[in-house]
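SAMPLE LOG
Freezer: B-3
Tube label: C17
Construct: single chain, 257 aa
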Amino acid sequence: MISETERPSEDELHAFADGLLDAGRQSEVRQWLESSPQDAARIAEWQAQSLAIRAAFSAYARSTAEDAELLRHRPARGAGWRNLAAGLALFVAGAAAGHYLPTVASHDPQLLVQETELPDEARAAYLIYASEVRHPVEVAAAEEAHLATWLGKRLSHANLKVPNLSALGFHLVGGRLVPVEGQAGALFMYEDDKGKRLTLLVGRNTADRQTSFRFAGSGKVDTFYWIDNGFGYAITGEVPRDVLRQVAEETYRQLPA
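STRUCTURE (predicted):
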């Protein structure tokens, strides 16, 4: 039986709801829930919402043994769009109640903190700069090549590229240098014909981990984010979630391997 001092954390409750705890801890949390009807009700609600989201995004679901492995270790970029479908399956499982899916393979709290800081910083940067009228960026789209070179050097990202999102109706406004987890980061801003803006935040990830697409939402602001080759990427905006997902897919597709 779990004592009061060993009560499950919020992250563990989400992991329990998604069946991601190891067998021993899963059993302990189940015992805890027997004496905590409030937490049990919350988990039941999350699981019901997860099922509803799975149904809504069933076209992206995967159930084979091969795809289950993709959820744990995303293969090389050469695997193509099958990667993205697996990443979206992670989003479907983790978006219940507006929460991201907890880490599958690690219980290291420090790694979890590093991973969850990215969407928080992406949201903060979006809220600060997307509403700016006269000075939303430091370098305008007319100097795109200089922008990519400058920010690439500051991030030590030799292949930093500015994604072209015109096919999705968003054109580049420009970009700026921003702090990301205490280090130099890049913020690219896009805008559609109606003035609706999106931002792409890029920062170094010291844990050097790989993740598929994940989702974080707060109020009207949503973020899709992932970690690839030592860098974290986050697409943030106040647009329909399906539009934001398409932008995340297109951004990922254009990034260098």
